[in-house]
Amino acid sequence: MTGAQAAPPLTKTLKFIGAHGRALVIGVPMWWLIVFFLIPFAVVAKISFSEAVIARPPYTSLIEWTGEGAMLLKLNFSNYAYLIEDSLYILAYWSSIKVAFFSTVATLIVAYPMAYYIARAPERRRNVLLMLIILPFWTSFLLRVYAWIGILKGNGIVNNILLSLGITSEPIVMLQTNFAVYVGIVYTYLPFMILPLFTNLVKLDNDLLEASSDLGARPMATFFKITLPLSIPGMIAGSMLVFIPVIGEFVIPALLGGPDTLMIGKVLWSEFFSNRDWPVASAVAIVMLVLLVIPIMLLRNAQAASAEGSS
Amino acid sequence: MGVDRIETKQTIATGAKPWVDQAEAPFIRISNLTKNFGDFIAVDNVSLDIYRQELFCLLGGSGCGKSTLLRMLAGFETPSSGRIEIDGQDMASIPAYERPTNMMFQSYALFPHMSVEKNVAYGLVRDGVAKAEIAERVAEMLTLVQLDGFAKRKPGQLSGGQRQRVALARSLIKRPKLLLLDEPLGALDKKLREETQFELVNIQESLGVTFIVVTHDQEEAMTLSSRIGVMDRGEIVQVGEPHAIYEYPQSRFVADFIGSVNIFEGRVTEDAENFVRLHSQEGGCDIHVAHGVSCTENQKMWLAVRPEKFSLSKEQPAGKYNFVTGTVDEIAYLGNLSVYRILLASGKNVRATRSNRDRHDAEAAPGWGDTVYLAWDDTAGVVLTQ
Ligand SMILES: Nc1ncnc2c1ncn2[C@@H]1O[C@H](COP(=O)(O)OP(=O)(O)OP(=O)(O)O)[C@@H](O)[C@H]1O
Ligand SMILES: [Mg+2]
């Protein structure tokens, strides 16, 4: 009874806010984006235009009231200018992009054969293999990165094996190098590359491979002429899922990297927490976002164009 | 279905029939070929000889193993046992990409990321043919399949019929010794299908390639082929020229599968040197067959009579043999002929056709509910022992 009575007011309310049916479906993700992305972005953008002060919060307000009842908007661009002046930031951006790029390529190279193998496996085995890929997510990411310290350190597993096999006479320094950072990133982000690649490769029509072979292509040629080109959308999707978060990656370089590992995530962190310079930290974040958005838009356009041509 | 269209096509250029006079060694020799998928036998001990420049149709119901047989010839499926020889060469150790065969896929399997031109050229590029020659041969082939203006299009921008022709061009460009076509015309509408059937025959004759065509459309098989192999549950049950398959089926399955047929079950009452007599409970009639059959008295046998072999009349024919009687249950007027469904006293339905020779014979033609007699010659039926 109460449900039946409660229904009309609810529909009325929904109608009132103009959210029925389709609007509701579209509206939910839109509100999500507004609340959890756009507003925080606006807040960060606002902070990036203020000045650092020793106060709480540690930045000035953009809007001031003058005595005559006028409003004064003060935009401070010096934070952005500072990012350009101090070569540290440019170097950090550049090195982040480099690390992200090379680790994306490395992840792709490791992930492709795995995704290919899973996609070609018989259906029952396929599910088990996919489970194994997702399994690491069940333990904390932090713990898993920590585990790599034990593997890579001077008297860690890798060095012990190498020493006992007589391959090296003294431990190789791996921890606190860029190498360790790459290993950590490839390891952590592998599933994000494998899953979109798998989704793409599993859809590949076996008839196409047989047709290629029938026309005289050896397995290698079939792979490079048919499988690889047709899996480009999967490679792009996976690469975006790896490249974008790796640029801002903080934990992995902090735990596995050395003093010379310069990444923007680390810079951002120390700016916020060590220097307590929130305006500069915010400017760093905004620039990073802008730097990321442009290539993503370009890629998406390219992808849409190629999808149009092939369908 | 299709009774009036049946004709024997002579696709071997010289008109010779190598499978009759055995003058030539078979081009493809399949012996005792079997394919198991687990416990399931998809192809069961098939032996088959196919001659150069034949257009051989594999005909059979869905799931009877046609595609599997074709895929073993192409090299996509490894035989569980048996042997395939093409042009005297054993295929067992030869991978698909080295076989002298090309296949046109049921799904066409066009490469979606390549233009029509690139699709067709693919086989030649893989073989390292010179660029200029490739361009020339591709252009030639596209002309042959009437796709001149479409070289730069992607498969996604073509109609179903155009795609099918690209697939055909791609499979022909390497001039294979043997072309395998898996239901090549399955996706086409009736008109385009008939046009393409004749195009296929023309191409086959002009290029002199040996074709094996899989189909489950008996009419298509009749129109296209030099010979037909009928498959049932993995076995080849009969091989022969279209007219032989139609007129002399060796089993009830073949008789029933090819065209429409009435089958009367009966028992042998008299087994003589040059005739046999049967009594059919089902038809309520006695049957006289004017040739000897190796059988024993009281053995169960079947007589298959095509609908067009009956003469339909309202008067009882003379004699005691070879007619049944019943009432007209249904008439379908098809213009050139009428198809009658006659209900016999036993409850069995019989199909008969009557050609509409005379425009004014409305009175002579039996109508609904009439009692009619269906008679046939003593050579018109086919005696089947299985
Ligand atoms: N890879 C496979 N694994 C298991 N069974 C298979 C496999 N391929 C085919 N079969 C089975 O073998 C039988 C024959 O299949 P095939 O594809 O040769 O049939 P077909 O005669 O071409 O039928 P259709 O006319 O429907 O194409 C079918 O029952 C099919 O289920
Ligand atoms: Mg098939």
The average pLDDT score of chain B comes to: 83
CATH class of the largest domain in chain B: Alpha Beta
Largest sheet of chain A: 2 strands, antiparallel
Over the alpha carbons, how many angstroms does the gyration radius of chain B reach? Answer: 25 Å
| Sheet having the most strands of chain B | 6 strands, mixed
Count of structural domains of chain B:
2
Task: Give the helix/strand layout.
The complex is a heterodimer of chains A (311) and B (386).
Chain A: H1 2-16, H2 22-48, E1 63-65, E2 71-73, H3 78-85, H4 87-120, H5 123-134, H6 141-152, H7 157-164, H8 178-202, H9 206-214, H10 219-230, H11 232-247, H12 251-256, H13 264-274, H14 278-310
Helix pairs in contact in A: 2-14, 3-14, 4-8, 4-11, 8-11, 9-10, 11-14, 13-14
Chain B: H1 18-21, E1 28-37, E2 40-50, E3 55-60, H2 66-74, E4 81-86, E5 89-90, E6 101-104, H3 116-126, H4 131-144, H5 160-172, E7 178-182, H6 190-207, E8 210-215, H7 218-224, E9 227-232, E10 235-240, H8 242-247, H9 252-257, E11 262-271, E12 276-280, E13 285-289, E14 300-305, E15 311-313, E16 323-333, E17 337-344, E18 349-355, E19 371-375, E20 382-384
Bound molecules: adenosine-5'-triphosphate and magnesium ion.
Residues 37, 40, 42, 60, 62-68, 216 of chain B line the site of adenosine-5'-triphosphate.
Structure characterization notes:
The complex is a heterodimer of chains A (311) and B (386). Chain A is mainly alpha-helical and 311 residues long. Chain A has helices spanning 2-16, 22-48, 78-85, 87-120, 123-134, 141-152, 157-164, 178-202, 206-214, 219-230, 232-247, 251-256, 264-274, 278-310, and strands spanning 63-65, 71-73. Chain A has one domain: MetI-like (MetI-like fold). Chain A has 14 helices and two strands; from the N terminus they run H-H-E-E-H-H-H-H-H-H-H-H-H-H-H-H. A two-stranded antiparallel sheet of chain A has the order 1-2. In chain A, strand 1 (63-65) and strand 2 (71-73) form a beta hairpin. With 386 residues, chain B is an alpha+beta fold. Chain B has two domains: 14-100 and 176-256, P-loop containing nucleotide triphosphate hydrolases (Rossmann fold), CATH 3.40.50.300; 260-384, OB fold (Dihydrolipoamide Acetyltransferase, E2P) (Beta Barrel), CATH 2.40.50.140. Chain B is built from nine helices and 20 strands. Residues 1-11 of chain B have low confidence and may be disordered. The interface between A and B is medium-sized, with 20 and 26 residues. Magnesium ion (MG) is lined by residues 66-67, 182 of chain B.
